[in-house]
Specification:
Elongation Factor Tu (Ef-tu), domain 3, 3 domains, 24% strand, ten-stranded mixed beta sheet, elongated, alpha/beta, seven-stranded antiparallel beta sheet, Rossmann fold
């Protein structure tokens, strides 16, 4: 019996956007229904919506309906397609915008006859991966100087509602020195989607960008498809074409909430705060797609994870922190140097970057930390020493010159700016850095290095 041609009539139940039906002869079919396979739901002889199998139990099949179940009757029929979701893959996808069903939504040329690639493939064997050793420059000083983004890294931006994390993510996509940027938007409001697209177009980088967008008004099941579509195309570009691919995802908390919504609809037993017990494995399955392929390209994943109530112990950021290799902490409109961490930065600092990088990074953060302490002493009306006054001057200038999200400069220029700020605020002998580096890079009164 051909599953692609057989229709089953009579839906046993409809729960939210999930339909259930029973197939007594499922195992006798030449191609039995499989989890994640697609199906076409038809009503009155006309296509109603695409659906995806999300559960198989004995003779019961549960499907998530992409377009929702409003107006769907129990007499509708289901035709199994015998295949999983596939992403369009060709040179014509660049500059295009797709939805969570892998269909173009930008009004451009039809791509239905283009080659496709299956999604949800296995992750790369860890023993076959290349050790991360190359930096992705973003021209953001708080990243490039203090927490380098490294190829094949998976790292989230932890933030809260109201922070400009989407604007910041778009800026990284524009400025990053990756070959290809693949953007995945999850549950975005239209304004955020428009701002991302406008940012890429205005910067002239749409020709190297592919966008997959699920709006807040779109079907929830498509929200779950977006990361898989983006990562399947990224893997194909990295492995077969040797591209250095940067995947941007926002917001992974919306992704987890979509999983929770579907799980509740299916009456699964929830775990922590209503999320399903497989939250960790579902997130890890996507993040572990980050990889540096031997003899080919790489996939780097930078995502946004919002923390409800600014609670880092919330299940989504908590599980994410165990999977990823650090985090950028966007707080009060700046990247917090104390909450941010890149666990792979040591693979590139001083090796792929300038010799003074490690020393200047540690010195700047140390003096900023002491400057914050001096500000607290000042707020509590304690007497300040002469060095405390210098620290206050330094911390104020550090925020203005480096921590603002709109600051943009290449790494070498940022390192020079660090030396310049140190020379403006402290005497040369007060700065604890290797003597040979100070002799080479210290800026004297005439602005010349080594003076």
């Amino acid at each position: 019996m051909d599953s692609g041609l057989t229709q089953y009539r009579g839906i046993s139940s409809i729960v939210g956007d999930i339909v259930n039906l029973r197939i007594a002869d499922a195992q006798s079919m030449s191609t039995p229904p499989r989890n994640r396979d697609l199906a076409m739901i038809e009503q009155d002889g006309e296509p109603f919506s695409l659906a995806q199998i999300i559960s198989l139990a004995d003779d019961k099949v549960s499907l998530q309906v992409f377009a929702g179940t409003k107006g769907l009757g129990n007499n509708a029929s289901v035709r199994f397609l015998g295949e999983t979701m596939q992403a369009i893959y060709s040179e014509n996808i660049f500059g295009r915008v797709f939805n969570g069903s892998a269909q173009p939504i930008d009004g451009g040329p039809n791509l239905s006859h283009e080659p496709r690639v299956r999604i949800n493939g296995p992750t790369v064997n860890p023993t076959a991966r290349v050790l991360a050793s190359r930096m992705i420059r973003t021209n953001v000083p708080m990243i490039d100087v203090f927490n380098c983004l490294v190829e094949s890294q998976k790292i989230p931006i932890f933030s809260v509602a109201g922070e400009p994390y989407n604007t910041f993510l778009a800026r990284i996509g524009v400025q990053a020195d990756a070959d290809v940027v693949i953007f995945g938007g999850l549950g975005l409001i239209y304004d955020d989607y428009y701002n991302f697209r406008r940012a890429f177009e205005d910067a002239g980088v749409m020709s190297r960008t592919v966008m997959y967008v699920n709006l807040a008004s779109d079907p929830v099941v498509e929200r779950l498809m977006v990361p898989d579509l983006a990562l399947a195309v990224a893997e194909k570009l990295a492995v077969e074409e040797g591209k250095r691919v940067l995947v941007l995802l926002t917001d992974m908390t919306a992704y987890a909430d979509a999983m929770k919504e579907i799980g509740i609809s299916m009456e699964h037993i929830p775990s922590n705060r209503g999320y399903m017990g497989d939250l960790y494995s579902q997130l890890a399955r996507r993040y572990e797609k980050a990889c540096d392929f031997e003899g080919a390209g790489s996939i780097t994943i930078l995502s946004v994870t919002t923390m409800p109530g600014d609670d880092v112990t919330h299940p989504v950021p908590d599980n994410t922190g165990y999977i990823t290799e650090g985090q950028f902490y966007l707080h009060n409109g700046v990247l917090d140097p104390f909450g941010s961490l890149s666990r792979l930065k040591q693979h590139v600092i001083g090796k792929e970057t300038r010799e003074d990088h490690g020393q200047i990074m540690n010195t700047m953060i140390r003096y900023y930390s002491e400057g914050v302490e001096a500000e607290q002493k000042q707020a509590m009306a304690f007497d300040l020493s002469e060095f405390d006054e210098k620290l206050l001057k330094f911390s104020k200038a550090f925020r203005e010159q480096f921590m603002r999200l709109d600051v943009s400069m290449p790494l070498e220029e940022a390192l020079d700016a660090c030396w310049h700020l140190l020379s403006q605020c402290f005497d040369k002998d007060e700065v604890i850095i290797k003597k040979e580096l100070k002799n080479k890079y210290w800026l004297g009164p005439n602005g010349q290095a080594g003076a």
